[in-house]
Structures are given as C-alpha cells and as structure tokens.
C-alpha cells in the first residue's frame, strides 16, 4: 500500500468519526439538554475560535516540527479528549471540550499540507487531493444515517467511542509513513519573526494574496448560506427537515462529483487562480438560482451545483498551496489560510441573522452571490494582468538578447 493511500485511509476514517461525533453532540445539546439554536451555535463558535487564533502559530511550528509526529500527536490528543464528551453533563463542559479538540486539530492541518507534497509528485497533487475530498464527502453523506442508527440503538456515547477509535486508527496508519524532512530547530523567541515572514509572503505574492482573499470571501458567502439554509427551507420553501437534509446531501454529492471531474489530464497545468475564480463564480450562480427561484427543485439543483463548484475551489487552493508555496513556508501559509477561513465562518455565523433581519434571507443570498461573482471576476482580471506583465517581461528579455547578439559591429 502506497504512503499516500495510507494517509488517505487515515483521513477517511477520522473524518467519518468526526461526523458521527458532531451528530452526537447535536443530539446531546438539542434533545437531551433541550438547548436552543443559540446553544448549538455556541458549540460551533467554540470549535472555530482556536482555528482563528492558533492557525498561524500552529503553522509556524508545523514548519519546524516533524509533520508525521505532529499529526500522530494531534490524533492521540483528540482521541482522549473526545472520550470526555461521554461524561459531559452541561453546555460549558461541551464548549470547553470542543474548544480543546479544535486546538489539537489546528496543528494537524498544516502538518498534513506539508506531508502530501512529500508523498506525491507535483503532477499528482490534484488527483491526490481529489481522492481525499471525495472520501470526506462520502463520509459526510453516509454519516447521518450511521449516526442516527447508532444513537437509536446504543445512545450518543457510542458515537464518541467510534470517533475516539477512529483517531487511534488514524494515528496507527500515520505511524507507518516513512519520508525524510529535516526538522528545523529554532529558539521560541523567533516565533514572531517567522510569523511575520509568512505574513509578508502571503501579502506580497500576488497568487497567494488573491487565494487568501478569495477563500475568505467565498467562505463568508457560503457560511451565510449555511447559517440561513434551515430558515430558508422553513419560511421561504415552506418545507420540513427532509428537504433540509436533502440539500446537505446534494451539496456533499456535488462536491464528490466535482472532485472526480477535475482529476482529468485536461486540468493539469491550469492556473489555480482561474480555477478558484471559476469555482467562486459557480458557487455564486448556484446561490443566485436559489435566491431568485424560490422553489424546491431550484434549491436542490443549486445545492448540487454549489457542491461541485466548492470542490473546484478547494482542490485548486490545495494544489496552489502544496505545489507552488516554498516548502519552508507551507505550514505557515496553511495555518494562515485556515485562520482566515475560520474567521470568515465565525463572522458569517454571527452576522447572517442580523443581515437577514435587514435584507431578508433572499437578500442575503443575493449579496453573497454578488460577492462571489466579484471574487471570480477578480481572479480573471488579476490573472490577465499577471500574464500581460509576464509577456512584457519576456519581450524585453528577447529584445535585449537580440541586441546582444547583433553586437556593435553589425549596425
């Protein structure tokens, strides 16, 4: 079994366990504790905050440490913390455990971003990331039914046990990986310096600056849709939980299909910024359809289209990070991007309700679509400007070369 396949299996198992645990937490908060929607939102906020705060710092240490050991330590830490949910009897306890689990997760993502390019040649990055994206979405599609059956038969604690076991299994698979990467030892006082170095690169390299802005804007727009989807189904479509569940399943199905669609050879060599821009425009078109045609069929079609376009965006961003980022900065860039997207998710969760009160749900969807279209257009404008500058530079070099070859005696 190839190393990348072992990493893929480890991720698939742990992601499935995560979805089971999230379902169990929802059951515990909403049904056992009779919590409100605000209480459930508190769980998600507690899980997002570490990504915002710790993401850049985790990226610094991801660049310093052995990524394999970092991922194993993250998995083992989470496997123990998840078991504490079995004893959680109050909302503050669930908030605290969710926060702690997310702290460990913040260190896993940069280490994984560093590991994949060490196991896969650059030409295979798109296919490798696509397989991982597909497995995550397949887990998302099957986990609700599995979790519901498990909770009905054994109670919510069985899901926590399964998630803990999935992390142990993932750590075992990761322990079999073998690759070489020098561990960079540096005093702790240089953390701020390394943070600034990563931030400077992110702000001065046009490709990564655009990717960061695009992912942040896209995450905020998609987050607004996710936060308001249930209310849209209830108040605009006048449908029930079945339609809401179908929307979630179709988004996951579309994402898996999109990951499969972009693995062909015709996509190799495409400018990742153009793929990100096209994907953003696709998500915008899907949300626009849902906003302008308040019908169930439009909502379902738009959800599938949204998932397909999201896959393009995420795969292009991963290929850009893993294939074009300087190896010594991959951890910091991954951590910074994770921090920005977590911040965008948090902002969407906190602001979507207020925006809906002012603009209406469909108004927020229209605003989200406009933001996504603007981001997509920016990708093509920036890409065109960069190509024009590159062509001018090549032309200047060719003229200089021609002048040097002619020499003074040829005039």
Element-by-element helix/strand order:
HHHHHHHHHHHHH
What is the rounded Rg? 23 Å
- CATH 4th-level superfamily of the largest domain: MFS general substrate transporter like domains
Shape: globular
What structural class do the secondary elements suggest? mainly alpha
Distance between the termini: 66 Å
Beta strands, count: 0
Helical content stands at over 70%
Number of domains: 2
Q: What integer is the average pLDDT? A: 85
Instruction: Write down the CATH class of the largest domain.
Output: Mainly Alpha
Named CATH architecture of the largest domain:
Up-down Bundle
Quaternary structure state of the chains depicted: single chain
Strand percentage: under 5%
Biggest β-sheet strands, sense, barrel? none
CATH fold-level assignment of the largest domain: Growth Hormone, Chain: A
Brief summary of the model shown:
This protein is an all-alpha fold and 411 residues long. It has helices at 3-32, 37-64, 67-84, 91-119, 125-154, 157-174, 191-204, 206-235, 241-261, 272-292, 296-324, 330-359, 361-406.
């Amino acid at each position: 079994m190839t190393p990348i396949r072992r990493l893929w299996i480890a991720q698939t198992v742990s992601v499935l366990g995560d979805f089971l645990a999230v379902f169990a937490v929802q059951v515990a908060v909403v049904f056992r504790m009779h919590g409100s929607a605000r209480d459930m939102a508190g769980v998600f906020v507690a899980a997002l905050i570490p990504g915002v705060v710790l993401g850049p710092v985790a990226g610094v240490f991801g660049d310093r440490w052995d990524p394999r050991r970092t991922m194993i330590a993250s998995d083992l830490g989470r496997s123990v913390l998840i078991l504490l949910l079995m004893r959680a009897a109050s909302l503050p306890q669930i908030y605290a455990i969710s926060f702690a689990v997310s702290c460990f997760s913040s260190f896993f993502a940069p280490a994984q971003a560093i590991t994949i390019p060490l196991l896969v040649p650059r030409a295979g990055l798109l296919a490798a990331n696509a397989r991982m994206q597909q497995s995550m979405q397949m887990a998302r599609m099957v986990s609700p039914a599995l979790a519901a059956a498990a909770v009905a038969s054994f109670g919510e604690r069985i899901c926590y046990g399964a998630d803990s076991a999935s992390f142990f299994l993932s750590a075992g698979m990761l322990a079999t990986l073998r690759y070489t990467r020098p561990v960079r030892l540096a005093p702790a006082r240089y953390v701020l310096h390394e943070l600034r170095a990563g931030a400077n690169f992110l702000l001065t390299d046009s490709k990564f600056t655009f990717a960061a802005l695009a992912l942040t804007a896209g995450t905020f727009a998609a987050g607004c849709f996710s936060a308001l989807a249930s209310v849209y189904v209830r108040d605009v479509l006048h449908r029930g939980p079945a339609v809401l569940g179908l929307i979630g399943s179709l988004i996951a199905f579309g994402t898996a299909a999109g990951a499969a669609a972009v693995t062909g050879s015709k996509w190799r060599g495409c400018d990742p910024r153009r793929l990100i821009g096209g994907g953003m425009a696709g998500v915008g078109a899907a949300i626009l359809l849902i906003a302008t045609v308040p019908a169930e069929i439009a909502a379902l079609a738009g959800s599938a289209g949204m998932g397909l376009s999201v896959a393009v965006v995420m795969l292009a961003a991963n290929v850009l990070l893993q294939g074009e980022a300087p190896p010594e900065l991959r951890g910091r860039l991954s951590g910074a991007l994770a921090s920005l997207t977590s911040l965008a998710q948090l902002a969407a969760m906190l602001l979507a309700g207020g925006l809906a009160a002012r603009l209406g749900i469909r108004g927020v969807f229209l605003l989200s679509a406009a933001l996504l279209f603007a981001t997509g257009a920016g990708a093509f404008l920036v890409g065109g400007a960069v190509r024009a500058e590159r062509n001018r530079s090549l032309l200047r070099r060719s003229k200089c070369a021609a002048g040097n070859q002619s020499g003074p005696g040829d005039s």
